[in-house]
Amino acid sequence: MTEVIDGKRVAEDVVSKVKALTSELSAKGATKPGLAVVIVGEDPASQVYVASKSRTAKECGFHSLQHTLPADTTEEQLLQIIGDLNADKSIHGILVQLPLPGHIDAGKVIQTIAPEKDVDGFHFINVGKLGTGELETAFVPCTPAGSMLLIERVRGKDLSGLNAVVVGRSNIVGKPMANLLLAANCTVTIAHSRTRDLPALARTADILVAAVGRPEMVKGDWVKPGATVIDVGINRIPAPEKGEGKSRLVGDVAYAEAAKAAGAITPVPGGVGPMTIAMLMANTVASAYLAAG
Ligand code: GUN
């Protein structure tokens, strides 16, 4: 029987641990965890994500701050806000929602965030720590960190010697995911748009992670029998069968056919998605603990 990995439930477990840690911090008289989320412009998907991040932060008992800035905000104004948040003792985590409008240099903005408040794990210091295996003190990007937790729930903590194939090489998911799997002693291959014979490569994977942003690209016959399949994609596609103008969410994996071969698989929605926000909360409470000493 294929296990359908319940990301919503695992995310709820993570959030309840975060709540307990937050209470512990306040019992010690320390500052409660503070998360600042900054959004520039009106991208509807980003607005939904940001609202959800702020809501969960409040639910965790955090001090939750949201800066909603107009699309014509200058890079200088944004850098000034980040500078102020870096200096603000009530803030332990700063997240600038991506993508940013084209006139702002996103790389420069990310590198301005203090590494010890970089709960997204995008600053070079945190990327470098992950790449060199300094996992104890690194902030790890939330989506790969959450995916890793789901993989460990299914396969246990010892992933030694397993073949892992990560499809997608983004800085936000593919590369950090590959580094996490490598740190866990998997044999890791990163596949991308230039990879030759991707289906055959995917079939070598005990752990197959799809993070490409292409609806239902990974087919059932790409999946090795018994493999753990982690679908990071969230794609909205037209669903005329539900009525005119309707749409539905699908992952990067053709779920129904892949589920037949897989040992365990994440659904979309309800798989990796809820884990991203939960891990953001986990990173923020960890940051508050470090600040409390
Ligand atoms: N946009 C899409 N995913 C993410 C993420 O994990 N962090 C930020 N800051 N922006 C995103």
UniProtKB/TrEMBL annotation:
Pathway participation: One-carbon metabolism; tetrahydrofolate interconversion
Keyword tags: Amino-acid biosynthesis, Histidine biosynthesis, Hydrolase, Methionine biosynthesis, Multifunctional enzyme, NADP, One-carbon metabolism, Oxidoreductase, Purine biosynthesis
Chain residues that bind NADP(+): 168-170, 234
Keyword hit for Membrane: no
UniProt cross-references to InterPro entries, sorted A to Z: Aminoacid_DH-like_N_sf (IPR046346), NAD(P)-bd_dom_sf (IPR036291), THF_DH/CycHdrlase (IPR000672), THF_DH/CycHdrlase_cat_dom (IPR020630), THF_DH/CycHdrlase_CS (IPR020867), THF_DH/CycHdrlase_NAD-bd_dom (IPR020631)
Domain (Tetrahydrofolate dehydrogenase/cyclohydrolase catalytic): residue spans on this chain: 5-120
Alphabetized PROSITE patterns for the sequence: THF_DHG_CYH_1 (PS00766), THF_DHG_CYH_2 (PS00767)
EC number: 1.5.1.5, 3.5.4.9
Signal peptide extent: none
Residue ranges constituting the Tetrahydrofolate dehydrogenase/cyclohydrolase NAD(P)-binding domain according to the UniProt record: 141-288
Known role: Catalyzes the oxidation of 5,10-methylenetetrahydrofolate to 5,10-methenyltetrahydrofolate and then the hydrolysis of 5,10-methenyltetrahydrofolate to 10-formyltetrahydrofolate.
Stored NCBIfam families: PRK10792.1, PRK14186.1, PRK14188.1
Family, as annotated: Belongs to the tetrahydrofolate dehydrogenase/cyclohydrolase family.
Quaternary structure annotation from Swiss-Prot or TrEMBL: Homodimer.
Protein name: Bifunctional protein FolD
Source organism phylogeny: Bacteria, Pseudomonadati, Pseudomonadota, Alphaproteobacteria, Hyphomicrobiales
Name of encoding gene: folD
